[in-house]
Specification:
heterodimer, A: 601 residues, alpha/beta, Pyruvate-ferredoxin Oxidoreductase, domain 3, 7-stranded mixed β-sheet, 21 strands, B: 298 residues, Rossmann fold, 8-stranded mixed β-sheet, globular
Chain lengths: 601, 298
Amino acid sequence: MPRISLKITGAQGQGVNSVGEICAKGLKHAGYCVFGYREYMSLIKGGHSSYQLDVSDQKIESNETTVDILVAFNHHGLERNINEVKDGGIVIHQTPMWKFSPEIQKTLTKRNIAVVYLPTEDILKKINGKPILGNVLITSVVWTLLGRDIDDLKGLVRAQFGHKGEELVKMNFTCIDEGVAFTKSAMSGDVDVSAELPPPKPQWKNHMLITGSQAMGLGIIHAGCRLYVGYPMTPASPLLSFIADEQNRTGMVIKQAEDEITAAQVMSGAMLMGTRAATGTSGGGFDLMTETLSLNGIIENPSVFVLAQRPGPGTGLPTWTAQGDLLLAIGSSHGEFARCVLSVSDAQDCFDLMPEAFNLAEEFQTPVIVMTDKQTAEALFTQATYDQKKAEIRRGKLVTAPAELKKLKSTDRYDPTVKDGISPRWLPGADAATFCSQGDEHNADGTVDETSANAIAQMEKRMKKMKALERVLPEPELLEVKNEKLKVKNDDLDLLIVSWGSNKGVIMDILSSAPSWARDRRVAYLHYTYLWPMKTAKLEKLMESAKQTILVECNHGGQLGMVIKMSCGIDIKEKILKYDGRPFFYDELLSNLSKLVTRNP
Amino acid sequence: MPIPLQSTGPSMKDYHCATQCSWCDGCGDYGIWTAIKRALVELHIEPTKTLMCFDVGCHGNGSDKLAGYRFHGLHGRVIPFAAGAKLSNMNLPVIAFGGDGASFSEGIGHFVHGIRSNYPITFILHNNANYGLTTGQASSLTWQDQPMNTAPNGMPEHTLNSMDFVFSLEPTFVARGFSGNIPQLTQIFKAAIEHQKHGFAFVDVLQACPTYNHFATHEYLLEKCYDANTEGHDPHCEAAKARALAMDSSKRIATGILYQREDVPNFYDRLKPREGKKTQCVDEVGKVDVGEFMEELV
């Protein structure tokens, strides 16, 4: 799979993101699949940050550790990121009189890396442009280096600034022309500074550029969620911001709560009243929500929690990624109760899984935890527009018809004798017998009942829902790449990769690239979307014949492996684990897999 | 006092529940329990047309001692739950009950933001100045130096001046009642439920805890409480005047509706996205077309 990568680095607030975004937009419009990745620190101004775009004519959902083009807004990028440039790559910077140490310079020369100084200040002075135009100038340089049509870029700029008047547009165009002229003169010199992109494919043009958070936000809106409440915490904040920003169009009730406990309680109250509501947070905030999670377990209240992971413990690495909260999602909260845990992996299921999360919550009248991580939440995906026919609204045993309501008795609400433990649910305000949504152990109508017989009956009622959930949840999905280079000779698996969440993108990119160790062999990826209750039948069957199984996770303990072992006794011994706050990079995981994969004759 | 004859709407019987009360003899909860039922009946609110939300404490044990849609949740957390419920269906009166232990310690943040947000709910504080259910520990409202369970020498901290605190949050409705005066309490509750259209109605109900509170007893409260409204206090007065009246309990304790203003919109009415909406969030669950959003991302 042909791919190139581009990284823009600079101080936070310097315009790194805007250059990254406009490049992404332009490349997508030109017919490329783009995958964007941001690294930044937990501060507002000044911290070193980067925006990386990996680009291909084929589907791409991963980043490389090294890049073809490095743009350094300031000298920090030249110091810190210079080793991330590929052989034959290009560095563009705007630090006057910059000199690398002789040692580094020697390596750069040897590795055929071109370093180009862009005299931004001089150029802007010449055209009498404001410093903010520096971003447009850099974009036009990158654009030219990538061999893109400059009219495309001008079109984008007009679309973005057109409403601010023709003068501003003209100024931007002048700036773009300067950037083109500069790059062309640099290219005519001795150094070869043009990065090769494969020919574009028009299919990408009508795709969206969307972050995981936006995708999840759209999924939540689409699912008929009418109230969203949250407390700011990275990496769940972009979801709150997106939904809040759109409130005037969606008509939703949005509440920024005073803390995560409040957020969880407001959501729970709204759900009890009968609308669809959700809350989102990261690990630390989720810790605070766990008492409420347990409450929803006993009152059998549908509830939806989004858990956006970042590395802990404590405040940890606030703006980085991890998959360290799987055991938290499964095991948090006091007492035993039914719950469902699932995880998104990309912009497609960020959207698709949200209606499902609400459906499961309402059908099983219990908490559902939707896991994501910083990598998914903030990555930029090239995504086809969603099929809006697909989603269903399933509200389970919710009774609303007046005739049916009339028939209800108070003791139907928590009737322990019902099949699957799922009793009828009706809403405050309904003309029916009333009940208490009781947080103490209770009998069928919500009256407190501490007798032994009742405690057993109600515990068993609620836990039956776990079995029922297990029956309806899909098994993990087996993903294989059909590729001419991968001529499979046998039906048995040579290699089975097991993982979950955001690792899907990088694993599938690797399989799509047909690495040498995968040729003539059957290699497949088993992706876990539904994590609790854990389904292992398919895994057990596959592992019976698979010659090798490797677990891949972004945590220290191999938490999915632990849950699998706890559920069926299988211990996946070979693991690739990462816990430095970074996602798996394409080349990195490829190399790790290559080392582990055994090639039996 | 003339009792209005009621020919329509629910009667006290409709709020009746077979579960027997389990409070101590002489507990103030009996009076509050009776008054809330009475208030709902007099407001013609059917048991199916309200949601009563209970915190955890002795009062919370009342959650299964009356009819109606009810919720019994976690210690200290009743206000945000009730707010979430109400914002989803503005047609139902939502009444939250909490004790002084929960509301002025573990859940004080919710209390602060409940008043500040001016949620359209009624909050009834069962104020017996201690943690009754957990066997008589000091709350923030227990008198300083009172020996209590876990504090044989009294609490080192000073007593929180609850009314000073409440008024500092710019409330829109503040009332105080006494569990021993059920007719007055009924009228206060009725006003507090009706105030929901204007925002957060706070009712501080002083009540006896015959088992653990040996300082502010029923007799003490009976002696000190007086109806300020019948003595001419106008709740629509300046906040400062009401605050001073509410805070001064040195000689007598003013009860009744101490402060009310109707000119501040409640939380829901300030939400732009809900302007002009005829439906409630509970009516709106259904697939929402996101085509417009997707177009903008292409």
